[in-house]
Design goal:
435 residues, hpI Integrase, Chain A, two-stranded parallel sheet, 7 strands
């Protein structure tokens, strides 16, 4: 098939399914297992391939499977690597009609150019599951696409809808292609499958990656917006405690301890419990979490956060502070047993608070603040908390609590120089001479 003649289909499913497929390959006939899986993924498409590709798909999928399995420790990293490897295999097999082991420097450059402007059939307008189950049979989701066109939350609320013609691969997306494919081909070299990494041979990456000045662009709430969001959420918690006492506590954790939304949800790898709040031998309180890159960290708990915890636990009918063996879920489901698993539900609850705060700002004659808040996402709470704390806490303390890999990342939240530049520019005039 050509790039425009057929719709691509996913090759890899969830992390759990991939791990299961990998383990089956270790105890049974790998070639047969992979061939059966590719038949599920590609059905009749395999028959349209040239013989050279037909003979390559099973072993090359096996190489990709082993590579992705090595990143099973981090859900976010796995998703990024799966996305790029899936795109490469599909493009190489069905567009270029060439095995990935035979790709040269110019081929990789052509792939990047393809990703910058993929055909509309390769672009979707929403995130969907890669595979679905129909009548007990697993099959590729016909709505899935390798690329997704997105619009801002504010634009969507204004009635705009994603336009495939406006798809643009971000600079960060291009950097990820270089990094992930470079790692993939390095792994193949280490396994003695190939001898040369075609990605490394690309010398002039500047023709793809734009040089951007080192200017911090941190999306965060203004003080007026944050105060209104907090006030609004407290009001909602008073009016509907069953639903929003939990929402208020989540909001306080997202802001006060810079948590990512994924760090509140329960997964097979980490389920936040009440005992993740703990006191050390010095009498100081900490919160333990597992975040990006599957890294565990402990966050210093402020007195304000401790009071929020006491209030939240009091509402739930618990003692003011958790015991070391308290196994109760930190964020319980509204219905059912156990911790909340859906980040989508958490996001919707916080979004309710944002939307209500927008209405209140408008009612208070703050239209500009309201309009800016409409663009905010839940992740802005983390950025806002870090930006506020870095003004008066040592950078290294904020870095460790936020889980930043380096102080340079934390430095992006320090906008003193930008503020000073803005102040000196504010009173500039046209220099006109008065008669």
């Amino acid at each position: 098939m050509s790039a425009t003649s057929a719709i691509p289909r996913p090759l890899f499913d969830t992390l759990d399914q991939l791990c299961e497929l990998y383990k089956r390959c270790q105890i049974d006939n790998q070639e047969r297992i992979i061939s059966d899986w590719l038949t599920v993924c590609l059905s009749d498409l395999k028959t349209t391939l040239p013989n050279e590709i037909k003979n390559a798909v099973v072993p090359e999928f096996g190489h990709a499977l082993r590579f992705l399995y090595s990143y099973r420790g981090s859900f976010e990293t796995f998703n990024s690597y799966r996305r790029e490897i899936d795109r490469l295999l599909q493009w190489s097999w069905f567009v270029l009609e060439k095995p990935i082991l035979h790709l040269k420097r110019l081929d990789i450059e052509a792939f990047i150019e393809f990703c910058q402007k993929p055909p509309k059939r390769w672009i979707g307008s929403k995130m969907v599951a890669r595979f679905i189950t129909k009548d007990g049979v697993i099959m590729p989701n016909p709505e899935w696409r390798p690329f997704i066109v997105k619009i801002s939350k504010k634009a969507f609320q204004d009635g705009e809808r994603p336009d495939k013609a406006s798809f643009e691969l971000s600079q960060q997306g291009i950097k990820q292609i270089f990094a992930i494919l470079g790692s993939f081909y390095n792994a193949l070299i280490q396994e003695e499958v190939i001898e040369i990494n075609p990605v490394v041979q690309i010398r002039q990456k500047s023709k793809f990656i734009r040089k951007i000045p080192n200017i911090p662009m941190i999306r965060r709430l203004s003080d007026k917006q944050w105060q209104m969001v907090l006030k609004t959420t407290k009001q909602l918690a008073e009016e509907d405690p069953k639903r929003h006492k939990r929402t208020l506590f989540m909001l306080q954790m997202l802001y006060g301890m810079y948590l990512r939304i994924s760090e509140l949800a329960s997964t097979s790898r980490w389920s936040p419990k009440m005992s993740d709040f703990f006191r050390d031998t010095n009498g100081d309180w900490w919160f333990r979490t597992v975040g990006k890159g599957n890294k565990m960290r402990q966050i210093a708990v402020s007195d304000s956060m401790l009071e929020a915890l006491k209030e939240y636990r009091g509402y739930l009918g618990y003692s003011p502070l958790p015991a070391p063996d308290d196994q109760e879920p930190l964020i319980p489901k509204e219905r059912g047993i156990g911790g909340m698993e859906s980040t989508r539900v958490i996001r919707q609850l916080i979004q309710t608070c944002f939307d209500t705060a927008v209405d209140h700002l408008r009612a208070n004659n703050e239209p500009e603040e309201a309009e800016m808040l409409r663009s905010a996402t839940v992740h802005w709470l983390r950025h806002t908390g870090i930006s506020e704390d870095v003004k008066h806490r040592p950078r290294e303390h904020v870095r460790d609590d936020a889980g930043h890999s380096s102080g340079a990342i934390t430095d992006r939240y320090i906008d003193i120089e930008l503020k000073a530049r803005a102040n000196t520019a504010r009173n500039k005039t046209w220099g006109e001479k008065k008669a």
